[in-house]
Amino acid sequence: MRDPGTPGVSVVICAYTEDRWEDVLAAVASVRAQSRPALETLLVVDHNRGLLDRLGKEYKETDDVRVLANAGPRGLSAGRNTGIAASRGDVVAFLDDDAVAERDWLKHFAEAYDDPRVMAVGGRTEPVWASGRRPDWFPEEFDWVVGCTYRGLPRGRVRVRNVLGGNASFRREAFDAAGGFATGIGRDGNKRPLGGEETELCIRLSRARPDAVLLIDDRAVIHHRVPEVRERFRYFRTRTYAEGLSKALVARSVGAEKGLESERRYTTRVLPAGVARGLRDALLARPGGAGRAGAIVAGVLAAAGGYVVGSVRARRGGVTFSVVGTGEGGGRD
């Protein structure tokens, strides 16, 4: 039995491909090595029978790891909802299947929940570049493209509009109040690299619980692998366009005022400063300065284009999404 004064934390890791087999094992191992142990780790497999069977055999003798099939439609949102419904913890944390958590990751998450107003806590995600180093042209302001913390986010433990889904936790009450992750937003393995499902959920949560506090604690660190294909400008352009599509869906769900609140500051303050830094570096003959400035401009244009297209599709009814409940957890200890 755990100390009744501390929240039990369930960790959900969603997996979909055997290509990340070693990454998934490393992610699970990092959870099992936490200084503050998780109550359980739930591996949710997204409509891949071979991977489901293989992981089931890998962890069949392990009491603290459960392997589950995604009970909903294909995609990350439904996979997370499956994990939430099966979990037993007072807090549910999410870790990407190609990331590893530092030893005190859960410790920092759990400490924040001493305040009963706190409904969600996110952390800092550092990129691990397959090539061994950041591409010279890749601006830190766009590290969200590869699922990592980007320049412009506040430092320390601070209140935010939304947490980032690959390194995040929520009090169970948050899902009781707002429902689960919306399906139809975010990744489904076969389409464009969409996102935004955690933003939509957090805004919905804040509306359902106006007193809710959402935090980022940058001491809760994970390291996220960036494969070579994502170090290329082609992926950068595709991902930024897809983000525009995603933001159009988020705005449709929660309204443009709230759905684009943080993005306005980002595009009017953070990105112009990034362009200026890139141009200054170019004048000083520092590697990649012009490339970074150009990438920022290209990323903004691609995202804007995606947003326009996504908005038109939404108005025409060409895209749909739904919010579902997460059901009851698998019991408490």
Summarize the structure.
41% of the residues lie in helices and 18% in strands. Strands 1, 2, 3, 4, 5, 6, 7, 8 and 9 form a nine-stranded mixed beta sheet that branches. Mean pLDDT is 90; it is low at 329-333.
What does this structure look like?
By secondary structure, the chain is an alpha/beta fold. The protein is 41% helix and 18% strand. It is built from ten helices and nine strands. Strands 1, 2, 3, 4, 5, 6, 7, 8 and 9 form a nine-stranded mixed sheet that branches. Helix 1 (21-32) links the parallel strand 1 (9-15) and strand 2 (40-45). The longest helix is centred in the last third of the chain and has 28 residues, at 289-316. The protein is globular, with a radius of gyration of 19 Å. The termini are close together. The model is unreliable at 329-333 (pLDDT under 50).
